[in-house]
Amino acid sequence: MVANTIFFWIFSITAVVSALFMITRKHPLSSALCLVITFIALSGLYGLLSAKLLFVIQILVYAGAIMTLIIFSIM
Questions:
Q1: Three-state helix/strand/coil letters over the chain
Q2: pLDDT confidence tier of residue 8, bands split at 50, 70 and 90
Q3: pLDDT by residue (tens digit) across 43-65?
Q4: pTM
Q5: Which residues of 33-62 are buried (b: 16+ CB within 10 A; e: fewer)?
Q6: More exposed terminus of the chain, fewer Cβ within 10 Å: N or C?
């Protein structure tokens, strides 16, 4: 029970801070990498909720495929 609370706060703070970094960065590549960190933190929150399908979809589709397309379009 205590471990879930600690992981919840870690993932929550990571998601909020990386989202703030994402919108305040001037360089688009660093902003995209902060978006990847936000997606990974959100997938950790889905994992804590025992939503295994959303956890896997968040990692594979959003953090993997869509961010690869965004980084290629930036480069």
A1: CHHHHHHHHHHHHHHHHHHHHHHHCCCHHHHHHHHHHHHHHHHHHHHHCCCHHHHHHHHHHHHHHHHHHHHHHHC
A2: very high
A3: 999 999 999 999 999 888 888 88
A4: 0.86
A5: bbbbbbbbbbbbbbbbeeeeeebeebbeeb
A6: N
Rg (alpha carbons) of the chain, rounded to whole number: 13
Spatial separation of the C-alpha atoms in residues 41 and 63, rounded to whole Å: 10
Residues 63 and 39: their CA atoms lie apart, in Å, by 6
Angle formed by the axes of helices 28-48 and 67-74, nearest 10°: 180
6's tokens: 């600690």
For residue 44, the one-letter residue type is G
Q: Is 13 exposed, middle or buried (0-12, 13-18, 19+ CB in 10 A)?
A: exposed
